[in-house]
């Protein structure tokens, strides 16, 4: 059985589908974003991609820390399907927290080490596969909650 959520999970399904759709869309534009003549616009749009990336990491791999957090187990029991935790998860969750969501001194360390850049090809592929597996594992009724928003 899926975990107990504070509201009916069907009400959030379209929002989760939106996160995935926007991540896929933004990630598909990545080469164009980085080649944009106005580097500020390219960076700004790429940060939007990273926000959706971070939200999906929390959805698939996070634990409900606040009562209103939405997690994958709201929709499917971990006995039926559980997200496969990739090797890069801890590093990228920390990067999202330290380089994107909060001003931290880690930014200085990454800048000095030349590691401010993001490489998301493997992460993009992994999240797309994770999404497909998640949707496939859903009971038919719950799958329909996501279907209208996610044609893939």
Please give the share of residues in helix: 55-70%
The number of domains is: 1
Order of helices and strands: HHHHHHH
User: How many alpha or pi helices?
Assistant: 7
Strand percentage, roughly? under 5%
Produce the secondary structure layout:
Layout: H1 10-28, H2 30-35, H3 39-61, H4 89-101, H5 106-113, H6 121-137, H7 140-147
Entry summary:
The chain contains 7 helices and no strands.
Q: Could you walk me through the main structural features you see in this protein, from its secondary elements to its overall organization?
A:
The structure is a single chain. The protein has 152 residues and is an all-alpha fold. The chain has one domain. Helices cover 62% and strands 0% of the residues. It has seven helices and no strands. The protein has helices at 10-28, 30-35, 39-61, 89-101, 106-113, 121-137, 140-147. α1 runs antiparallel to α3 and α3 (39-61) packs across α4 (89-101). The chain is globular and about 45 Å long. The model has no long low-confidence stretch (mean pLDDT 88).
Which properties best describe this structure?
single chain; 152 residues; 7 helices; mainly alpha
